[in-house]
Design goal:
The structure holds four protein chains of four kinds. By secondary structure, chain A is α/β, with parallel strands linked by helices. Chain A contains ten helices and twelve strands. Chain A has two domains: about 230 residues, Rossmann fold (3-Layer(aba) Sandwich); about 80 residues, no CATH class. In chain A, the strands form two sheets. In chain A, strands 6-7-8-3-9-10-12-11 form an eight-stranded mixed β-sheet, sandwiched between helices. Chain A has a four-stranded antiparallel β-sheet with strand order 2-1-4-5. Chain A starts with a strand and ends in a 6-residue tail after the last strand. The longest helix of chain B has about 40 residues. The N and C termini of chain B lie close together (about 5 Å). Classes of the chains: A alpha/beta, B mainly alpha, C alpha/beta, D mainly alpha. Chains A and B meet through loops of A and loops of B.
Chain lengths: ~325, ~325, ~325, ~300
């Protein structure tokens, strides 16, 4: 596989404020030794619940959150080893679409400025070509030219997300990290944005690192899927394998929990895999399998020894008793 | 909680050490010979006096040694000697600190109770007459110079309706009466100074608690309370007020320094025998040791007030209670 | 007579664009033991419908301008504030969307549930607290006795929503309104809450009004469904009928545009169907159908006349194209 | 309320800049506009009033304690030395306003810089700067200003510096809080993602968005600084060679029981000025508040 972006042992831990000056400092272990690879022109989905570290992992990979350790190779070059200015210039190829259409656009800037800014800051093209590029981008994402001088608050959520996409596309990046780009939108608008992302990917050969909590969305848009739980990838597989033959008990529970039109109250639907409780805290996580406390299959071994990601058919799964 | 208190006290001591260091450098940064600065306006300090000061303060020694001596002395409560009164500064301040605390606390209690009551009533009908009145009072209170307020009250009560004494803290004619009479006399004297000071801060609390209350009344948990069937009264006083009080506590702590500053002015207007009048005397006589002593003690009062505020906040907000 | 009947309810709001009609002639009914799902996009009026039943529409700027809400025959729109307080929390209860902010941060979970009990039943505080612990246990909170003494910030989102549910069912209400009860929660927790609500309904026979934007939640939870758009009910019927044979073009689009884990297996999914455009702002609604500008089947009548909810009583829709049998 | 999605403009819409919207809101606010008018009037009077009026505020022109209205030449009467009060008011406003404005400027400069650095960088820098700020908050502002002015010189410059030095902590805390809040928003991460450096993010992205509360606070700081200056002058710590409203009150306070006017009018002038400033500040606060805009 020709990997565009490859993370090895990616780890992010945030120091917590000390409870008193003599206490040992606690760490919030957001991402704990994550490996993944994203092939050129494809979409890798990372799915998980809040606190799973999915967003932190993706943002750490392109150095928008820190401090990360491990290795993140982008076209063979380790991003984590770059100096600040080198990294800044590399952002031409690495862009982001954010979750919240209301806070991801600076309310004081006109949208034309917002879309043009990456070109200015990263020195792409000359003045006239930049203006032309902004107009081109606007029509590309389905906005009108006469909307260029407006301010963000004059747009609806879906339109703002289109502006965000235009900004991310401006410098012709290779990779776009999509951080829950549709989770704040109504379903009807969500479909518009997802279809737009797919269309743009085909047109420009983009690669997406796609973060979502919604398995339906993930299935719609990602060829490869990684499931994260408490800072670790617990299962990673191509789409077909993951949805037809989930191996990790957590993946199975997620699929069982995701609302589906096929599960009818009228037909007396009963959920097969019921999960109890909430995910444990990422501050000082347990030593064994993090899912053991909630897992219906857990044995003593699960609590003591951590299962590693191991191949099983087309999938990779971190479980002592998969399937 | 105890651990927290200990750490808070240690930090307070650190802040006070900072004040001492600041005082030390202020004297030395002031234009002129430090000895002469310390001697102040004694009317041409003689060479002997200056020499005595130099020896006393070790002014011929290296700066760090001087600082060490100064720090050591201050932390033991030796605030130096007032050259005008010819008495230890600590003793002078000790005699005046009580009246200042009385004045400040009285003003604080009046302004918080009346201010919060006004704010809550205003928040019940944000577009009502009362709410408008609170805004007006708040804006006026913010704009009135506190010393001028005092003077206006003196003019009013001295010549037009003479029901309150306008000067001093006690009537010397009552010196031999019982404690109750004397206490009533002091409260009688306290009325005008405390009121002038309270008006300014009352405005702050009224405005703050109105805003805070409006904020809280729009919160989801207030809607939950209504959904349970709670009465308006219970919504207002049980559910909303306790949450709305939190910012009031914070501001009460932050405003304590301002309150002390205001008290200084009010004291000079009403001739209230507190630290303010002492500071005023110190300035008139250029008695820097005394002035810096007052600054030190005032800062100590602010530190203590801040600790008390923090503790109060922790008691009122369970979200902070668990932390040690 | 249904347990809860909403009849031609009209709610207006004062805005800077002048008065807008947030609910325009909404009629619904819910029977005991039944779950009615109300589904629609943000701004369609589903939450205002819920708040109207509770008598909690913020006023000003909101105002119930007409229609009736009847609980077991008793009119709630004209009821005195005192009577409404009596009913709220005892006969009708509500669960809100944001468990993080819906509990009062300065009181313990147990206290807040006990308060709901003491407001409507003549019991001592100790007795109310005992019942609160039992309720916490019933909604699946482990170590209920200890948890009752926790403050909201010490509980996870899922637990807070359980506390809200315990509070809501504490007086065995006849009607339980759940306004997007799981939107703020993770999917695995959402599943737990859905299961809990279904269990509670089986036990108590309460009517549930579930407000949601999620068709998946409708499938799992609802017996009947009302689809709302721009302040009106545009289609109504049994959940199966709506999901399998939607009539209104909006309902059809809404179902087709959901990326779904259950549709087929593996493979490359086809592109999603789209509903073009956005919901029009309420103050710009003209005379015709509010959906016509986004609708593939719109014709001239749609611009001129607002469609009424017509068709078989078990599954009516408000659409001229459906009425005239156009494709 | 959950009204409709913010309007999707169908026809070419007019760009609505947030600042212009705030100004539209401000103009509709009657008390605020009245405050602005009063403030402009006071500034004009202090700038040109003395010139037009022509009296010398230091010159003894009449008998002491002439009550207002008794002599048409001196409409507000004379002070304890027999100086014209109107001339004093017109001359004494300038220094008061100038010191107020300069001190407010200094306050904002120190406060915003420290608050912005602390809030943006966080961690050890934040810790250090906030300890420093807390230290300054421990010193009662007026007393500390008194010490500074007494120890150094009682010139107008020194007074402005002293007031600035004692007032900045509140601005620093406010700025820090705003920076902490805005720093977490996605458009800040977005700015970094498109290659913006720290300096640009601080001053071009976060600061403009933090401005509304800072502008309000700056306005109110002017009011506070004017009150401070008046307080210092009243205590006799002002520049003895410059007429100011506070000095007029301080100089005449010994005679308040025999003559009320020499202290009343300057006090009223201070009050009206600060009142006007705070009306403007409240108006700005409302104008910047998006919650009120929906009404």
């Amino acid at each position: 596989m020709n990997a565009l972006l490859e993370a090895k042992g990616l780890t992010v831990r945030f120091p917590m404020p000390k409870r008193n000056p003599f206490a040992k400092r606690d760490f919030l272990e957001a991402v704990r030794g994550v490996d993944f690879a994203l092939a050129e022109g494809r979409t890798l989905g990372i799915v998980g619940e809040s606190g799973s570290g999915k967003t932190t992992a993706a943002m750490a990979a392109i150095r928008l959150t820190g401090p990360a350790t491990g290795e993140v190779r982008f076209r063979g070059e380790d991003l984590l080893a770059l100096g600040p200015e080198e990294m800044r210039l590399r952002r031409r190829d690495l862009q982001v679409i954010f979750q919240d259409p209301y806070s991801s656009l600076n309310p004081r800037d006109r949208v034309s400025h917002i879309v043009r800014e990456p070109l200015d800051l990263l020195g792409v093209g000359d003045d006239a070509s930049r203006d032309a590029r902004v107009e081109e981008l606007f029509s590309l994402v389905g906005l009108r030219r006469d909307q260029l001088p407006l301010f963000p608050h004059q747009f609806s959520g879906g339109q703002r997300q289109r502006i965000s996409i235009a900004r991310a596309l401006a410098t012709n990046p290779k990779l776009i990290v999509c951080d829950e780009p549709v989770s704040a939108l109504d379903v009807a608008i969500q479909a518009q944005i997802l279809n737009l992302l797919v269309r743009l990917q085909g047109e420009f050969g983009l690669s997406y690192l796609f973060i979502s909590h919604d398995l339906g969305v993930i299935r719609q848009i990602c060829q490869d899927v990684a499931v994260m739980y408490l800072g670790r990838i617990v299962e990673q597989a191509p789409r077909a394998a993951l949805f037809s033959r989930p191996l990790h008990p957590y993946t199975q529970a997620l699929l069982a929990a995701a609302p589906s039109l096929a599960r009818r109250k009228s037909a007396g639907y009963q959920r097969p895999a019921k999960l109890k409780g909430d995910p444990p805290s990422p501050i000082n996580p347990p030593p064994g399998c993090a899912f053991a406390e909630r897992c219906p299959k857990a044995q003593a071994k699960c609590r003591e020894e951590r299962p590693r990601l191991a191949p099983d058919g087309d999938s990779l799964v971190a479980c002592w008793f998969p399937g | 909680m105890a651990g927290y208190l200990l750490r808070r006290l240690a930090y307070g001591l650190l802040l006070m050490a900072g004040v001492v260091i600041l005082n030390f450098f202020l004297i030395r940064l002031a234009p002129g010979d430090p000895a002469e600065v310390i001697a102040g306006d004694m009317g041409g300090a003689t060479a002997e006096v200056l020499a005595a000061i130099r020896a006393d303060y070790g002014l011929d020694q290296p700066l760090l040694v001087q600082l060490g001596r100064y720090l050591g002395a201050m932390m033991q409560g030796d605030l130096g000697e007032s050259y005008f009164f010819n008495r230890p500064v600590a003793e002078l301040i000790g005699a005046r600190i009580g009246p200042t605390i009385l004045l400040v606390l009285a003003a604080q209690v009046i302004s918080i109770t009346i201010g919060v009551a006004m704010g809550v009533m205003a928040a019940r009908k944000p577009n009502g007459v009362l709410s408008g009145a609170v805004s007006v009072v708040a804006t006026i209170g913010y704009a009135v110079p506190v010393f001028w307020m005092g003077i206006m009250l003196i003019i009013l009560f001295a010549s037009i309706i003479p029901i309150f004494p306008v000067e001093g803290m006690a009537d010397i004619r009552l010196r031999n009466e019982g404690w109750l009479e004397r206490m009533i006399d002091i409260l009688h004297h306290l009325a005008l100074p405390a009121f002038s000071l309270a008006v300014i801060f009352l405005a702050i609390y009224a405005r703050l608690s109105r805003a805070s209350m409006l904020d809280v009344l729009g919160a989801d948990y207030v809607r939950t309370a209504r959904a349970k069937g709670a009465s308006e009264r219970s919504v207002l006083f049980r559910h909303a007020l306790r949450n709305a009080a939190l910012p009031v506590i914070t501001v009460a702590g932050l405003q304590f320094g301002g309150l002390l500053s205001g008290a200084l002015l009010v004291e000079t207007v009403f001739n209230w025998p507190g630290m303010g009048t002492l500071a005023f005397d110190a300035i008139l006589r250029r008695d820097y040791t005394l002035l810096l002593g007052v600054l030190f003690c005032a800062a100590a009062m602010v530190v203590i007030a801040n600790i008390v505020t923090d503790l109060a906040y922790r008691l009122a907000d369970p979200r902070l209670r668990g932390e040690t | 007579m249904a347990l809860l009947e909403i009849d031609e309810l009209k709610v207006t709001f004062r805005t800077r664009h002048g008065p807008v009609t947030a609910l325009d002639g909404v009629s619904l009914r819910v029977e005991a033991g039944e779950t009615l799902g109300i589904v629609g996009e943000s701004g369609c009026g589903k939450s205002i419908t819920a708040l109207s039943v509770m008598g909690l529409v913020p006023s000003p700027p909101g105002n119930i301008a007409g229609g009736a809400i009847r609980l077991a025959g008793e009119d709630l729109v004209g009821a005195s504030p005192r009577r409404l307080r009596k009913l709220r929390g005892s006969e009708i209860a509500m669960i809100f969307q944001e468990p993080m902010t819906s509990l009062n941060p300065v009181f313990t979970a147990g206290d807040q549930i006990a308060e709901a009990i003491m407001l409507h039943q003549n019991v001592s505080r100790a007795e109310a607290l005992t019942r609160a612990v039992a309720l916490l246990d019933r909604v699946g909170i482990p170590e209920a006795r200890r948890r009752a003494e926790d403050y909201p910030h010490q509980l996870s989102g899922g637990m807070r929503q359980r506390v809200m549910i315990a509070m809501a069912v504490s007086c065995q209400p006849k009607v339980l309104i759940a306004d997007e009860p799981t939107t703020a929660l993770d999917v695995t927790v959402q599943a737990q809450i859905f299961d809990l609500l279904n269990d509670l309904q089986r036990e108590t026979g309460a009517a549930i009004m579930l407000i949601t934007h999620d068709m998946g939640a409708i499938a799992e939870m609802a017996d009947r469904v009302a689809v709302m758009y721009a302040g009106r009910v545009i289609e109504e019927g049994r959940a199966d009928d709506i999901l399998d044979h939607p009539k209104h073009p909006y309902t059809r689009g809404l179902i087709a545009c959901i990326p779904n884990v259950g549709k087929g297996e593996g493979g490359e999914p086809p592109p999603l169907a789209e509903i073009p455009g956005v919901v029009p702002p309420l103050h710009l609604l003209g005379a015709g159908c509010a959906f016509r500008e986004r609708c593939g089947s719109a014709f001239d009548r749609c611009a001129a006349e607002r469609p009424r909810l017509l068709g078989p009583a078990a599954h009516p829709a408000a659409c001229h194209a459906v009425e005239e049998g156009r494709p | 309320m959950s009204a409709a999605d913010p309007a999707a403009p169908r026809r070419p819409a007019r760009a609505e800049s947030p600042l212009r919207e705030a100004w539209v809101m401000f103009r509709r606010n009657r008390p605020a506009m009245a405050g602005l008018a009063l403030l402009v009037l006071i500034i004009l009077a202090t700038l040109y009033g003395a010139l037009l009026y022509g009296g010398d505020p230091y010159e003894i022109v009449w008998a002491p304690h002439e009550p207002p209205g008794a002599t048409p030449e001196f409409p507000l009467g004379t002070d304890y030395l027999g100086r014209d009060i109107v001339a004093g008011l017109l001359t004494g406003g300038g220094p008061t306003l100038a010191v107020g404005a300069a001190a407010a400027l200094l306050t904002m400069l120190i406060g915003v810089t420290i608050g912005a650095l602390a809030g943006y960088f966080g961690g050890a820098i934040d810790n250090l700067l906030m300890r420093f700020t807390e230290f300054f908050q421990v010193l009662p502002a007026l007393l500390f200003a008194m010490v500074l002015v007494t120890l150094f010189s009682p010139s107008l410059t020194m007074i402005a510096i002293a007031i600035g030095l004692v007032s900045w902590p509140q601005t620093a805390r406010l700025t820090r809080a705003e920076f902490l809040k805005i720093r977490k928003l996605e458009y800040v991460t977005a700015a970094r993602a498109i290659g913006a450096r720290d300096g640009r993010i601080m001053w071009r992205v976060i600061l403009p968005n933090a401005l509304p509360p800072l502008i309000v606070s700056a306005t109110l700081t002017i009011g506070v600084a004017i009150l401070f200056e008046a307080g210092l002058s009243f205590l006799g710590l002002g520049d003895p060679n410059t007429m100011s409203w506070g000095l007029m009150i301080g100089a005449n306070r010994a005679y308040i029981l025999s003559a009320w006017w020499p202290v009343t009018f300057p006090g009223l002038a201070i009050f009206l000025t600060v009142f006007a400033v705070s009306l403007v500040g409240d108006g700005l606060n409302d104008a910047f508040n998006p919650k009120l805009r929906e009404r």
